[in-house]
Amino acid sequence: MKRLIVIILVILVAVPAFSQIKFGLKAGVSTTNVKMADLKTLTSGNTSYTVEAIKNANYGFHAGAFVRFSLMGFYLQPELLFTSRTDEYRVTDLSNPLQSIETKQQFNRLDLPVMLGVRLGPLRINAGPSARLLINSPKDLISNPDFKSMYNNLTFGYQAGLGVDFLKRITLDLRYEGSLTGFQNQIDEAGNGKIKLDDRPNAFLLSVGLVF
Prior knowledge:
Layout: H1 2-14, E1 20-35, E2 40-44, E3 47-53, E4 58-71, E5 74-93, E6 101-120, E7 123-134, E8 147-151, E9 154-166, E10 170-179, E11 184-189, E12 193-196, E13 200-211
């Protein structure tokens, strides 16, 4: 929460330095890869499971609003977006490894990226931090009642990419999004402690916007 407050204060301090202000709406799609460092093994009683992230790209969407403050070829663009993405995992009961279960978890969140950019003709180059607030409770990876999934409600990452403006009204952006903290923090095993999954989703985001 302290990091989020710092980001907001930076925006408030920097805004008066910019002369031109524009508002906009944007929406787009994303493709996400979940990266987990290794295969995780969990035990409940006499039953053991393995959990691994499926590396196939998964698709999501985002939509929201932004404000662009411009001055002498530079700009500051804070955004507020609703984002939805789905991760896929393979859960295997080691007593019956031939019957692995592929399960999906949907994450809905509010994103607050703050992009600092420069204009090179019609092309824009930008990068900045992004705060993410989880607003739903994804289902557990394992249905066994001895397990409980635990999530980080507030996480942080970054975005960087390129943009192009058309006719002073239409804006197109392609960005890469990286994670500094994992969304799914850990699974609590009854009697066996907490197992960290530390999944860090990375994504490519394509969006189109309308500037007012």
